[in-house]
Design a protein that fits this description.
heterodimer, A: 7-stranded mixed sheet, 4-stranded antiparallel sheet, 11 strands, B: mainly beta, 6-stranded mixed sheet, 5-stranded antiparallel sheet
Amino acid sequence: GAGVSQTPSNKVTEKGKYVELRCDPISGHTALYWYRQSLGQGPEFLIYFQGTGAADDSGLPNDRFFAVRPEGSVSTLKIQRTERGDSAVYLCASSLKVSASTDTQYFGPGTRLTVL
Amino acid sequence: KQEVTQIPAALSVPEGENLVLNCSFTDSAIYNLQWFRQDPGKGLTSLLLIQSSQREQTSGRLNASLDKSSGRSTLYIAASQPGDSATYLCAVTRLGGGSEKLVFGKGTKLTVNP
C-alpha cells in the first residue's frame, strides 16, 4: 500500500510570496500532523487534524501559517508572505489514532522549502 | 515544557561494533517514547515504540529501553552495519492535551564505516 506522499518535494520561492504544500495521508488514517524541521534540528510540531478539524494548532508560529483538510484526507499547508526564516523541510505524518499509547505516526518524505 | 536531549550529536564507529545512543526527557508524563531513523532526503521511519508502562522493546539487532522515572531511554544497536548509517531521532508523546504530538530531540548522526 502507498505511504504518506507530499508534493512538491522541493519548492523555491521568493520572500513575500505565497506557497501551498500538499500532504496525502495513508488511506483510512484519521489523524494528520504537520511538522517543520530546520537544519540540524529535530522536527517541531505545527498542527494536528482529527478528521476535517484542526484539533491542535498550537505549533503554528504565526498567522501567516494556515492549514486545511476539507474532506478529512488530503491536507494543504499554506504560508503567506514567506520569509527567509520559513526555509525548512515540512513533514507530514498520519496515523490511525486507535490508542494514544500505541499510536505510530507514519511520515512522508517532506517538502524542502527554500525562501530566497 | 517537554524537552528532549540526545547524546552524542554524532557518532562514527567501525562495522561490527555494538553501540548505544542516549535520549533524555524532562517531563515523565508521557504516553510512549519512540525511536525513529531518518535517511538523507527522506522521511522518518519508526523503529521502536515503548509504551510508558513498558521497560524495553526489541526488534532484530535493535533494543530500546525506557526508564520513565529518570527520564532516560537508550537505543542499543548490535553488530552495526554500514546500512545502519543514518540519523536516529528520539521522540516522546506527551500525556493529555489530546493531540499526542511528538516532541523530538535533535538526533544522533551515526556513521558505520566498512
